[in-house]
Amino acid sequence: LGAKAIYWSRALSIPTDPSSQVKLTHALCPLLDSLNHSSNAPTYLECKNAEKDGASDTCLLVLRASKRIAPGSPVEINYGARSDGELLKCFGFVLGTNNPANFARVTLEGTPPMGTPSTSTPPTSTPPTESRSEGRIKGNRKEFRCYPGGVVPGHPSKSLWNLQDRN
User: Fold this and answer.
1) pLDDT greater than 90 at residue 156
2) Which of the residues 58, 87, 105, 121 could staple to 52 if both were Cys, CB 3.0 to 4.6 A apart?
3) d(CA 87, CA 99)
């Protein structure tokens, strides 16, 4: 149990191939794992080709800054787009209202699948676009992701409802 707790709270997603920053694996990285998370961290991890015994498949992990970090400012890394639930489970903290990865899943029962004309409105040549790219169909159920502020990322003109914390 202790080993799993260490792994899940300290492991980082790191690039594994010097030619591609897309191939990732999880690894424990002493010192790097002590850096705090920021969604806007100006840093990134890079896999540099490090030859070892003539083989060039060894990766040297380098932390780079995409902009200057002022003296006295903390060096932070981005743990990835994780909801507060994931951050709490894996790292023991939440960002709250400042977390762009938060969402809520809402299931509407008894509604026809998107694009299916309802009996109360005449069919149109264009299916409704209310959430065509934001929703997912499961049988006769629609699932939506509701983003903070009610705006779908990448689609500022397509807004969803804004969920309010009613506590």
Assistant:
1) no
2) 58
3) 10
**Confidence band of 72 (pLDDT split at 50, 70, 90):** very high
Sorted by where each begins, the domain ranges of the chain are: 2-80, 104-159
Higher pLDDT, 150 or 40: 40
Q: In the prediction, which pLDDT does 158 show?
A: 39
Q: For the purposes of burial, counting CB atoms within 10 Å of the CB of 50, is it exposed (0-12), middle (13-18) or buried (19 or more)?
A: middle
